Amino acid sequence: MDTASLLFYLLASLLVIASLMVVFLRNVVHCALALVAALLLISVFFVTLQAPMVGVLQVMVYAGAIMVLFLFVIMFLNPAALERQRGLWWGFGTILGLMLAGVLVPLVATDDLPADPVAATALFGSPEMLAKSLFNDYVLPFEIASVLLLVAIIGAVVLAKRDY
Amino acid sequence: MIALHHYLILSAVIFAIGVIGVLVRRNLIVILMSIELMLNAVNLTFIAFSRYLGSTDGQVAVFFVMAVAAAEAVIGLAIIISVYRHRQSLDPQEMQLLKW
Questions:
Q1: Which of B3, B74, B78 has the CB atom closest to A115's CB atom?
Q2: Domains and CATH numbers, chain B
Q3: What is the ipTM of this complex?
Q4: Coil, strand or helix: which one is B89?
């Protein structure tokens, strides 16, 4: 087994453990910290897949901005009480999720997928190439995304205002 | 070298874990976190396909998924704050005003 596969399996097992901690820990703050770990591990995967720009954005937007927002809300609401004891629905939901995994994994584990990545140029995944693609082929979705973010800002202010 | 289906299996597993979180947790904030986990599993699939097919379109798609996920998190947390003010609870099982 070469170093690349070893690194992949190490990171993958860490990622699965962090995701399980997000779902199965009872304290909300611990869940949020496990989610930060999972997001950082995913950004490492992005960098190893020659998408350094997206990896940096992942750290800044997800592990930075969105997680700070989550932690702010957790501290603001301060849900001190732990969740109630696990009941029947835990086993039921877990079985449903395992069934979903049992459908998805054989579906994607076929052999007719490309086994090796195509030879990438040095520019692949760089900001220049992404910007060319974003501002030539995807201008309309880009503008729509900006309108969407504006709507989200206004909606958040209106929803979280104390009285209206 | 790692084949493409390794990444696909990994993201399928992460997605299923996120689905379990949405199904079993009784805390709205953790449910939102599980949704973020599922979105990230999809992002990993996009990036893996973009690398193995040699096209940047997958990376551009991840940009848009990130923008939508940020908007979704902001609106979701604002709704959670608003609900908490009315009910003093984060348990979705107690929000049953429309339940017959």
A1: B3
A2: 4-91 (1.10.287.3510)
A3: 0.91
A4: coil
